[in-house]
Specification:
There is one protein chain. With 200 residues, the chain is of the alpha+beta class. The protein is built from four helices and twelve strands, in the order ββαββββαβββαββαβ. The C terminus is likely disordered. It has two domains: 96 residues, Alpha-Beta Plaits (2-Layer Sandwich), CATH 3.30.70.1890; 86 residues. Strand 7 and strand 8 form a beta hairpin. It has a five-stranded antiparallel sheet with strand order 3-6-1-8-7. The radius of gyration is 16 Å and the shape is globular. The chain starts with 7 loop residues before the first strand and ends in an 8-residue tail after the last strand.
């Protein structure tokens, strides 16, 4: 693993909340940095998208939902200060339970809900291939649906993406670095595809 790429670790929290707004990633990030401002100091830190289903009222959260933060190991020592905090997510209370650290494991197939990119699937895949080449990562790409994420000052555009046939060191490297910008809003963060029920 290159010395320029910090090793990452996941901090996992039990959460209690039934519903969040459709554009929750922005307000979630702002709520998190109120309690742990050091999150802003590392551009590679991210928030894994919550597993939700859409409804007319907002995004529904299943029971036993988890909040996962992808942290540098230097920040891992501070994650516990989030345990027990109540986060205001657009008028909805997201209660954090106890947290624990989980070492990131290598999986041959990884999935990202939204990788930022151009509004053309062919050009998007070309750009992703170039980024992976720069990282020294090889794998087979499967582009999913076009996704958008509204923030107060812009709308983020991209595609969901599955990358498979990854070698172990490439899998770890991709999970550590992610692809593209705005990992704080859940963009470009890769998780094992085995926990995804479909390519959304």
């Amino acid at each position: 693993m290159s010395e320029s790429i910090p090793e990452m670790i996941d901090a996992i929290f039990d959460i209690s909340c039934d519903l969040v707004p459709a554009g929750y990633p922005f307000t979630l990030w702002n709520a998190l940095i109120q309690h742990l401002p050091a999150l802003q100091q590392e551009a590679c830190v991210g928030v894994v998208p919550l597993r939700t289903s859409s409804s007319e009222a907002g995004m529904l959260l299943p029971k036993r939902s988890k909040l996962v933060l992808r942290l540098t190991e230097s920040l891992a020592a501070d994650f516990a200060c989030l345990s027990g905090q109540s986060l205001d997510i657009g008028g909805h209370t997201l209660q954090l339970g106890s947290g624990k650290l989980r070492k990131i494991q290598a999986y041959p197939t990884l999935h990202a809900h939204l990788v930022i990119g151009v509004n053309d699937e062919v050009n998007f895949l070309e750009d992703v291939t170039e980024q992976l080449t720069e990282l020294g990562i090889t794998g087979k790409l499967l582009c999913g649906m076009r996704n958008t994420l509204p923030t107060p000052d812009r709308v983020i555009h991209g595609y969901s993406l599955v990358i498979h046939d990854l070698k172990p060191h490439d899998s770890l490297r991709l999970q550590y670095t992610g692809l593209g910008a705005d990992r704080r809003f859940g963009c470009g963060i890769f998780v094992p595809y085995k926990v995804i029920t479909d390519l959304d």
